[in-house]
Each structure stands twice: as C-alpha cells, then as structure tokens.
Amino acid sequence: MFNFKIHQELSCIAEGDGYFYAKAGAMVAYKGQFTAEKVLLDPNQNQSMLKSFVNLAARKLSGENIPIMKVSGNGAYYMANRAQHVSIITLDKGQSLGVESENLLAFTPDCKYSVRFIGSGVVSQKGLFTSNFTANGPNAQVVVTTNGNPIVLETPCVVDPDAVVCWTGPDPGFRADVNWKTFLGQTSGESYFMEFNSHGEVVIIQPSERFGGIDIGID
C-alpha cells in the first residue's frame, strides 16, 4: 500500500509498495523499483469492460479526461508538475471529492474515479463537468496541485469558479449577479460565483484565476 506525503511544498512522495495512479509525466525521481504503464480505459477496479468504456467516453466528452498511468513497485516515488504547490486530501469511506482535472496529480486505488455534472460553468472556464473521486476503502487519498499556495476554506463559502480547484461533499450552487451595469462595463468583474451551502466541508482554491468570463463594455 502506498501513502502520499508532501515534500518541500512543490512535490509529493508516494512511499510504500503495490500500485497507485498518477498523471502521465508526473514522475521527477524515484528510489526503489518502479514500472509505469498507461491506463487505456479506466483505473477503477472490479469493473466490467462496458462500464470502463462508458467512463472513458464520459471523461472524453466532458473534457475531464487526462492521461493517467498506473505506477507499480516499491520505494519512494517523487512527483511534481511545473513547480506548482501540492495538497493531499484524505477521504473517509463514502466521501466524495470534486476535482478540476487539470489540477489532478495522483490518487490511490481506494478512490473510484468518475465524472459528474455540476452545470455551473456557463460563463467561466470552470466547465459544466468535474472529475469525481469517491472513497471505496480506508486508504483513499487524492493529490492536487495549485498555482501558488492553496487557500483552504471551510464551507459555507462563496468562491470564484475560475479559482476553484477541488471540494468535498455536495456540489455547489451557481449564482449570477448580472444587471445593466454588467453590459456597460461598470461592474467589478466578479459577477459569477460558486456557492457552497453545506457545513463542515472543505473547498480548496488557488490564488490564480483561469482566464474566462464575459468581457462586455462600451468605450
């Protein structure tokens, strides 16, 4: 069994033996014996071929599909992505995590990987779908990256959809603050929000927005 831990903020170490899953190209170094193979269909275990095809199609059609490799072996496996900061989320059995696929770095086999519809990306780069992980066992860990130090918030809270990285628990609502000033270019530019109304869950955002939204104004 592998466990993840943060190494000097900008990298993650997977230590142990067995196997885990990582974003293709995530490895920067390792100690021990490891092999990596590309996951062609689906990383979920004990699943029929049909369901694997369906999950792959859902990821491709939703834009949430990224190249994933299965890493097997024993020792210490170092991972990073473009000097981004790393965070590790440990899930209780049955708990779910919504993650932006571009921020995903690695996860353990105790996580079921799928796609879920959230429908809150009409006017941002957030998109209508997000990657979803559900804890199926006692060692469910997901590693994510952020541009800059992660900002960890406890719900309830309201966040910019272009800054969100991941969240536990139920999906957020979508709120728009649009009026005549929006179309005259007289607003602050913060007109669309993700609203998390549950209590005691966690939202991670990054101090770097994806470029998106509507830019309408009159010169």
From TrEMBL:
UniProt feature coiled coil, ranges: none
Alphabetized InterPro entries for the sequence: AIM24 (IPR002838), AIM24_sf (IPR036983), Trp_RNA-bd_attenuator-like_dom (IPR016031)
UniProt-listed SUPFAM superfamilies: TRAP-like (SSF51219)
Protein name: AIM24 family protein
